[in-house]
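Thread: Newbie trying to understand structure tokens

Hi all, I'm a second-year student working on a class project, and my supervisor (Dr. K.) asked me to get a predicted structure for one chain before our next meeting. I've only ever worked with sequences, so writing a 3D structure as a token string is new to me. If someone could post the tokens and maybe explain what I'm looking at, I'd be very grateful. Here's the chain:
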Amino acid sequence: MKVYEIIITGDTNDGDYVSETSTITEEKLNLILPIIGLIKKYTIDNPHKNNFPASEYNREGDPTVYDIYGHLEAYPLFCDMCPYGEYGIHSIDSITISEPVTRTELL
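---
Reply by user tm_fold:
Sure, no problem. This is what the structure looks like when written as tokens:
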């Protein structure tokens, strides 16, 4: 079974970014690809809106992250892989997928 490393970077507040790295199987990767596609589409269709409004400071009346993506089967799985700053994130800035590499901690 092929394994991947996924790094999701989110914006918490005015350019303060947090990242989360997870290891996932190819099967799980295939499950979350529709959500990643919707995030890309939402970003293009709504360039001045937050694409992943999972922050405690969401604007009243704006859709929540659940409102936008909650209908998808892999929504809980994807949320578990997302970073969460002190008050949550409002946008996903990047998603990178790669094969895991061997690392040696030096310090």
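A couple of things are worth pointing out once you decode it. The radius of gyration is 14 Å. The mean pLDDT is 92. Feel free to ask follow-ups in this thread.
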